[in-house]
Amino acid sequence: MSVSFTSLAVPSVELRQQPPAMLLAAGRGQRMRPLTDAMPKPLLAVHGRSLLEHQFEGLSRAGVARAVINTGWLGEQIPARFGHEYEAPGPDGQPCRLTLDYSIEPQQALETGGGIARALPMLSQVFWLAASDVYAPDFGFPLARAKAFAASGKLAHLWLVPRPDYLPRGDFGLGEDGLALDLPADTSQTLYTYSTRALLRAELFARPWCDIPAGNPDGIITSVVPLLRAAMAQGLVSAEIYGGRWMDVGTPERLAQINRNAF
Q1: Single pTM value for the model
Q2: What is the pLDDT of residues 99-110, one digit of tens each?
Q3: What is the DSSP string of the chain?
């Protein structure tokens, strides 16, 4: 990928309703083996429901009407289980149907950047992003924040969490002006962990930020992090701290810890 900053203007968008969400669900889950040898990690159960169902329910409570799920490792099990609709309580507590669409990837998966680029034709100019293997039951997908972000001219808005003990280092800093900071590992400033909850603009996946054509027809494998870092350098990524329950469900031990209500 090459980045040349010829024009940094990002047009504002007026949102009247919740944008769609992309749920990342394609990874192999190597650290979760042997649990993921025969089942994709997003289908592992937390308190009797799959990790994906917890995402569906959070989106429905917030009034999000549609989610795009990328699938990779054993990915055929996900649409086979959920189909194209999921019913959960909506914002008023009444049953609400969340429409489910699927972005199919190879078993190897395309990582976060390649996966989002593959799904981009199925999304809108502004969309939510969440990793399905992160448990954050208190996250609300707030419509007010989505509206403010769409009007802001930023390319991304990230939710950050205090770095947990099981992660070796933080990801990004946070400035007093609300901008996310790409800081060196040896910084004296506080580094936070990216929660995998974000609002993104489709423009982040176009030039000058990204060279992958929409739909990623060549199956390019890449992370979204280099795009975020490049946009941070131009002051185009905002952030805030998320203070609710949060855990990266990356190992069988952490999965068991959540199911014991021990976090």
Answers
A1: 0.92
A2: 999 999 988 889
A3: -----S---------SSPPPEEEEE----GGGTTTTSSS-GGGSEETTEEHHHHHHHHHHHTT--EEEEEE-TTTTHHHHHHTTEEEEE-TTSSEEEEEEEEEE--TT--HHHHHHHHHGGGS-SEEEEEETTEE-TT----HHHHHHHHHHT-SEEEEEEPPPTTSSS--BEE-TTSBEE---TT-SS--BEEEEEEEEEGGGGSTTT--SPTT-TT-----SHHHHHHHHHTT-EEEEE--S--EE--SHHHHHHHHTT--
